[in-house]
Design brief:
Radius of gyration: 18 Å
CATH architecture: 3-Layer(aba) Sandwich
Helix content: 10-25%
Low-confidence stretches: 1-21, 239-258
Shape: globular
Strand order of the largest sheet: 5-4-3-6-7-13-10
Mean pLDDT: 84
Order of helices and strands: EEHHEHEHEEHEHEEHEEEE
CATH topology: Rossmann fold
Number of domains: 1
Distance between the termini: 22 Å
Oligomer: single chain
Number of strands: 13
Number of helices: 7
Largest sheet: 7 strands, mixed
């Protein structure tokens, strides 16, 4: 996989350099993004390009909608939502350095930034017409808990759009990594495996119906996926205990482990 060795801040395969195991240390998610924030988005990235192209194809009509950009980072998706006509966009992230990057380029008087945790959303029920969560679900161990929280804040008839790195790539031992521009040290970020059956089972139980699914390929391999679901008007979100989530039992398998 040529691109794995070409680009900083993206998937790479362990032991790809002259057959030597050069695996970077793994950082917890918040620590990683706090450190990465200074250089985040500076490098070209074909994986992100694939995801961005798919995102443009999957976004619904957002005219006059209230949208939550979950795990907003520096506001890439918030900008798309506002450009698409959203009347209000709230970006939530738990990395203050990433939020500071977003605050330096607020896109509209109706664009708000919130410091918060995706597992404990600080919003009233049924606050949004749609939620967009890009490239962040795999960083959370309990998929069911985060989906239940999202379902609680999405109005009936509203949408959920998720993009993330493909479970196939994670199971092959690839990781998401970046290089600290100050020290030159490469780090990987904590990652968990969530299979499509986990997504679909949880979404159905929470009252969503799948509308679209894309699995873009890079050099013949699926590296990202995008799915869009609609919250059915006649169903309400159910509550879940964290221990019930089948996806919590397994973290990302990395080359040389498990």
């Amino acid at each position: 996989m040529k691109f794995l060795g070409e680009i900083r801040g993206q998937w790479r395969k362990w032991g790809s350099r002259l057959g030597v195991n050069s695996s970077p240390p793994i950082l917890p998610v918040r620590q990683a993004y706090d450190l990465w924030a200074a250089s985040y988005g500076k490098d070209s990235n074909p994986v992100l390009d694939l995801e961005s192209k798919g995102l443009g194809q999957m976004l619904p009509d957002m005219q006059a909608l209230a949208v939550l950009d979950l795990g907003c980072g520096k506001g890439r998706v918030s900008r798309l939502a506002l450009k698409g006509g959203a009347k209000m966009v709230v970006g939530l992230d738990f990395s203050m350095p990433m939020l500071r990057g977003a605050s330096s380029k607020l896109f509209s008087a109706t664009h708000y930034l919130v410091s918060g945790d995706a597992l404990h959303l600080p919003f009233k029920p049924l606050s949004f017409d749609g939620v967009i969560a890009t490239l962040m679900m795999g960083h959370l161990g309990n998929l069911r808990a985060v989906l239940a929280g999202i379902a609680a804040v999405v109005r009936p008839g509203g949408f959920l759009l998720i993009s993330d790195f493909h479970p196939y790539a994670t199971l092959r031992g690839w990781d998401r990594s970046f290089v600290d521009e100050k020290t030159g040290q490469e780090y990987a970020i904590e990652q968990h495996v969530h299979l499509f059956e986990h997504y679909l089972a949880n979404l159905v139980k929470l009252g969503f119906e799948l509308q679209k699914l894309q699995e873009p390929l890079y050099e013949g391999f699926p590296v990202v996926f995008l799915l869009r679901a609609r919250k059915q008007p006649e169903k309400q979100a159910e509550s879940f205990e964290e221990s019930e989530d089948p996806s919590t039992a397994r973290k990302a398998v990395r080359l040389g482990e498990g």
